[in-house]
Every structure is written in C-alpha cells, then in structure tokens.
Amino acid sequence: MSIKGRDKEFRTPKTTYVDFKHIEMDRVLTMLFPRLKFDGYASRKPPREKILQPEEFVEEILKGGEIKQYFAGFDDHPEILKKWVETELLDVVNRGKINQAVASPRPLHGETYKFRNAKHCRDYGAAEQIYWMLYYARKGKGQTARDQLRKFFFPGIDLVTDKDDSTATVDVETQALLRFNRQVTADMRDSREPIRLAPLCIGQADLLADDIIRLLTYEPYIPRSVLVDYLKTMLAFHLALYHLRLLYLVPKLVKQRSGNDLCGIKECTVNPGLDNALEGCPYRISLIADMGDVNNSHMAELARKSADRFYRQIPAFVQANFVVKKLDEMAEYLSKKTGKLAAPPSGVFSVGELASLLQPKYDMDRQAYFKFRLANLIEESGAGNEDLDPEIREVTSMGLGELESFIEILMAYRGKYHRQYITECLDSLLLKNKENGLLAQARTKGSPRRFILGSKLLEVLLQLAVLTRENGRFITREVRIEELLAFLRSRYGLYIDRLPDTSRAGGSILDRRALRLNLEAFKRRLREIGFYEDLSDAYVTQKVSPRYAIEKSDGIQKNGRQP
Fold first, then answer.
1. Are 283 and 253 in contact (CB under 8 A)?
2. Contact 178, 164 (CB under 8 A)
C-alpha cells in the first residue's frame, strides 16, 4: 500500500520551509536574489524556449561592440573564453558528461536568477527559509542584513528602474554577468503572496543576521568572489545549525504539549552582541568537533558520538513533524469549518499552539477528527479486514488512540523515506567531506559520520571572531586562543578543547588527552591558514591575528601592509 494525497504531506513552513532534499548552496543563493529584490516575493521565470547552454553565454559576451571595451582580447580566443565561462561564471550540472547543462550563472551578482534553468536550479525552500529568518530577526538586524545583501549583490543595477548603473565599479566576472542581463527585458515578481512565518528558533535568525552584517563589513577588503564563497559557507552553516536544533526542539514541544515561553520573539534570550550569545537558551546544541589529527582516534570517536546523537534523533523529529502537520490540518478544520476552535489573534496557529491541542481538554475533538481521517486511510488500503495491509493490522491491534494510530501508520509507510532524505539534506547543509564543511564520513558504505571543522569554515568563523564594535563600527583586533575557543562555544556550540556541560563531568583520562591533542591540532590548522603565529610558550601571548585588518581610520590594510 502507498499513502496518498494529503495524508503523506510532511513539509510544513511552521517548522521549516525546507523540503528535505540534497541542497546546493549556489542554487540557494540564486533563488534568494529575487526575494531580496522583491521583498520576499519570488520571481516569474522568464519565458524561454530551451535550456541555456554555455555556448550561448559565450556568444552573448562575444557579440556587440562592447567586447573590445570590457573584454579586450577575448574575441581572439573563443575556446579559452568558453572554458573561462564554464568554470568561473556558470554553475553546471553533470559537468563533462553528455547531459551537461547549466543550472544558472554562479551567484556573483543578484541578476543571475533571470538565467536559471528551473529544472536544474532547485533550492527546495532553503532560500525562503533564509529570507524569512532575516525578515523576522530582531532589533533591526534582519532589515540591516537584507539591505546590505541587496547592496552587495546588485552592484551596477538601479533597483528602482532595473537599468544598468554606469557609475558603479565592478570586477570582470560581474561585468560579464551584467552583459547577460541584457537578454532579459521583462522581469516581474510572482503575484502569489508569500507565506510569512517567523522561524521556530528566532535566536538562530538573530545570529544569522548578525553574522551577515559582520561578514559584509569586509566588502572593501576582500575580493568579491571570495566574499561570495564566505557567504555561501556561512549560510549553509546557519541552516545546518537551525535544523540540528529542530531535531530536538520539535519533539520536545510535542512531548510537553505546549510551546516554550522562552522561545517567543519577545522572550528569546539569545543575544548575538553578548560574549555568551546562547546563555539562557533551553534548546542550545553542542557539537564536539574533531580537528582531523589522524593519530587522535579517541577524539574522532568523541566527534562521531556527537554527530550520532543528532542523526539518531531524526526518527523522533519525523514523528513529531507529522504530529504538528496533522494537528495543523485539524486546527484549520475546527476553526474554519466548524467554528469549534478560535483562531489566534495572528490568524496563524504556531507550533506551540498546535502542540497544546494534545492536551486533555481537546480529546473529544481530536478523537472525532482523526477517527474520520483514520477510517479513510484504512479504507484506501483494502475493502475488508482480511485485505488489510499487515502494517495497518498491526497498528490497529495495539489499542492506540486515533491520532496515535494515524501517526504510527504514517511512520510505518513514510518514516524511512523521510529519514533518508533528512539525512541527505543535513549532509549537504553540513557540506560533508568539504573544506568548508562541518561533517566527515568515509567513502565506504555505512561508515559513521563525525563533526570535523573544515579549514575554510574555520577561516570564515575567524573573520567573524576578530571583529569587535567600537564607536558604532566594526574593527578587527587580535584574539587570544582561549577567547577564540570561547567564541566558538558560546556562539555556535562548537566544542574543541573541552566537553559540553551535558557530558560526564571532566571526562576520562583518555578524553582529556584527546582534547589536549585536538587543541594542538587546532593551533596547527590556524597556522596553516595564516591566522596564528607562536610568539612564546605563554598561553596568554598565543593570539590569532586578522588577515584583513580594519582599523579606526578609513584606510584599507591587508596582512598588516598598506596596499
């Protein structure tokens, strides 16, 4: 038997806009651009007869009299130009194969979404999730972050008239992408009203907005393509942290049959401006990160157990998300069809309010509604009791309530499916086995996962750690190693030199040795990426220096030297 229709629906924006699939951050950023441009609305895809191929992008650059002005010499070497366009300007799927196709231009400029090939450029709701996290981020940080992203990603374009701005100075890659922009003369926002829902964890939204503001401080100091890669890494990192938190948050809300007062927009205690940003958060997460020392097998085991705790929580999340989804359908029916349930002042039931429908005072309404839904589900499986699917017969013989039986049947038929795709989605958001990722897994089938802090991800987090606000603007400073480790723990829940407070007190001798070796590996990694030099053995003099120095004056300084 297969579950049909709305009975198998799983995705609900009230927990996350993301439809759990493998996610590529280039495509997420591409689909975020129209939402930034149109204030949350998607765009209508430009009409196009066929899928754009690399040759068409090359032809667009070559034609016209401006080629000699902007791309001198390119017209003499079309094959080199094609290779440059394919590798530097285009996000290509099935690269080098017969079915190679362009997903979209690389997201170096906000207008690239116009040239996406929709079939190959799917973000599975991740761009929506990012946008509405920024929209609802508190204390004005979300608006500031969105404004700065618009300014950064739409240079050379007047967003009021949608015309080229000849006064803007842009790099060669961006100039090439703006050449493509003239192919599209009609660009309209989607007329469908977007679903506006606050993120379930508003604290993570605040951290995301604050990190974007911090990172874009480097715009005059870091090459544009490098900063775009930094942004992609950071967005993936925050999406991963948000969904790792959901694995615990949603089941707990369902179990306690109510929301948490500390998780409201007004009450959330997370404050990105404090040294201990996550202090007071009842759902803070802890990730033990291995630094990749091959001789420190015990540290790898600690990092494996840390990752395993999250991935083992996926089935509980699937079940809890099904409960929230089906309670939402019940709440809509009771409020709009029968009038038995008053809608909240906002007009939208929150996850906490839906979880409260599990309380005893709603038993009769729940029983009546899910008795009908359960009967329909069973009827679809067979005409008579003898024809019942064994899975359904086993559940109905357990003597559970109507809702519990309904959810158990859904889990029996759809649980494995969603568990597989959630695992795949988390792997992609954690950028598994990549230098800018937080997860590693051997290539052999069934190998365990473990948290490991990639060099490029560490580099991004270091750029944020060395910033401090002074007189209303960010400047860089040297940071002691112990301060850096505290920053990673208190802001992101990353543990490198110690175990989380939830772990056994102090740890064993093997644990302490593994953590000490992990700290040494952490320092070696800092040296490798050019942020750290040993001045002496004294712990207080071991400092991390900013790669791009931002000082009180307006002068730009890089690696301690004036350009």
1. no
2. yes
Q: Are 325 and 12 in contact (CB under 8 A)?
A: yes
**pLDDT tens track for 7-25:** 888 999 999 999 999 999 9
- Helix H or strand E segment including 487: helix 481-492
User: What DSSP assignment string belongs to 155-184?
Assistant: TTEETTTTEE-TT----HHHHHHHHHHTT-
**Which residues contact residue 533 at a Cβ distance below 8 angstroms, ignoring those fewer than 6 apart?**
527, 545
Phi-psi region of 96 (alpha: psi -120 to 50; beta: other; left: phi over 0): left
**AA letter at 130:** I
- How many CB atoms are located within 10 Å of the residue 166 CB? 7
Q: What's the angle, vertex CA 20, arms to CA 328 and CA 425, rounded to 5? A: 145
DSSP code string of 325-362: HHHHHHHHIIIIII--SPPPTTSS--HHHHHGGGSGGG
234-292 pLDDT, tens digit each:
999 999 999 999 999 999 999 999 888 788 888 899 999 888 898 888 899 999 999 99
Q: Which two tokens stand for residue 439?
A: 């997860």
Helix (H) or strand (E) holding 468: strand 467-470
Cβ-based burial of 262 (10 A; exposed 0-12, middle 13-18, buried ≥19): middle
